[in-house]
Amino acid sequence: TAHPEPSIVSVGKGKTAAKFGGGHIGMIAGPCAIESAERLDEIAGAIKAAGATVLRGGAYKPRTSPYAFQGLGEEGLRILREVGDKHGLPVVTEAIDPRHVELVAEYSDMIQLGARNMQNFVLLTEVGKTDKPVLMKRGMAATVKDLMMSAEYVLSQGNPNVVLCERGVKGFDNACRNMFDVAAVPQVHELSHLPIIVDPSHATGRPELIPACALAGVAAGADGVHIEVHNLPEDAMSDGPQALLPEQYAELAAQIKKVAEAIGKTI
Ligand code: PEP
Ligand code: MN
Q1: Pick from 14, 127, 199, 265: CA 20 to 30 A from residue 110's CA?
Q2: Residue 247, φ and ψ in degrees, nearest 5
Q3: Is residue 143 part of a domain?
Q4: pLDDT, tens digit, 9 for 90 and up, residues 187-240
Q5: Is the distance from CB of 40 to CB of 80 less than 8 angstroms?
Q6: Into how many domains does the chain fold?
Q7: Domain range for 51
Q8: Distance 55 CA to ligand 2 centre (A)
């Protein structure tokens, strides 16, 4: 099908801006949730040294249980902004409520739309009205075409900067948290000019499987890699069991860099 040249989405400003698409690989990393300034600062320093280009962290967490930690809210956004600036890392964080979109846009360089909200069309429309790049995760029961149509909700509001994310879909085997659909990467490139990245953390839920899936994603043409990193996984307030330690992330980032160079891409 005919479509324009691959889009390049820039996140952040100036020389620390991260690029996704058109031969650029964006490296998003950080904890699932923002827990404290001290902890985020430590993780950010480590991932930056390892080669990450965007810091992630949730201030509003879409938890399965209403009794689980829901995030620090605006205080978390403030911490994320401060720590990102200190380390020269643009920041991405999730908006889960149309009423928070303006606030999230104020503090962040990229707005995440989570898997649970990929078809929350009211939220998509509000995010589409902002001038911030968007990280749109594939819904856990969404087809690749569903994902494309959700991206249209953002694009049609006048916001062209959408990065898609394969984060696994519901499968029949509970050995993994989800099923990593690596074929979604070339399918999106076939259908669209938009960048697509992979999130092996939520796709597998298992740290020992993350490196293989991250490298497979990059080899399949992914325009970026999204990985959860925590310095004390056993103490994390969400998604601790799937987090890579900073040193594990550093080792993986070096491998990703080698694959990227081999296929003529830059980080
Ligand atoms: C997350 O990034 O922490 C998250 C909640 O991801 P997903 O929406 O893919 O489940
Ligand atoms: Mn998470």
Answers
A1: 265
A2: -70, -30
A3: yes
A4: 999 999 999 999 999 999 999 999 999 999 999 999 999 999 999 999 999 999
A5: yes
A6: 1
A7: 9-262
A8: 13
**Residue of 94, 111, 135, 229 with the most ligand 1 atoms within 8 Å of its CB, for mutation:** 94
pLDDT tens, residue by residue, 46-95: 999 999 999 999 999 999 999 999 999 999 999 999 999 999 999 999 99
* In a domain? residue 90: yes
Task: Kindly state whether residue 267 falls inside one of the protein's structural domains.
Answer: no
The rounded percent of the chain whose pLDDT value lies above 70 is 99
Q: Could you list which residues have their CB under 5 Å from ion ligand 2?
A: 32, 239
Chain centroid offset of residue 132 CA: 14
DSSP per-residue letters across 130-170: SSS-EEEEPPTT--HHHHHHHHHHHHTTT---EEEEE--B-
pLDDT at 3 over 70: no
Residue with CA nearest ligand 1 atom 6: 114
Using a 6 Å CB cutoff, which residues line ligand 1? 32, 58, 62, 114-116, 137, 167, 202
What is the enclosing helix (H) or strand (E) of 187?
helix 184-191
Question: Are the CB atoms for 236 and 32 separated by under 8 Å?
Answer: yes
Residue 257: CB partners within 8 Å, gap ≥ 6? 51, 267
Cβ atoms of 226 and 47 closer than 8 Å? no
pLDDT, residue 4, reads: 79
State the ligand closest to the CA atom of 64: 1
Read off the CATH number of the domain in which 120 is found: 3.20.20.70
Phi and psi (nearest 5°) for 30?
Answer: 150, 180
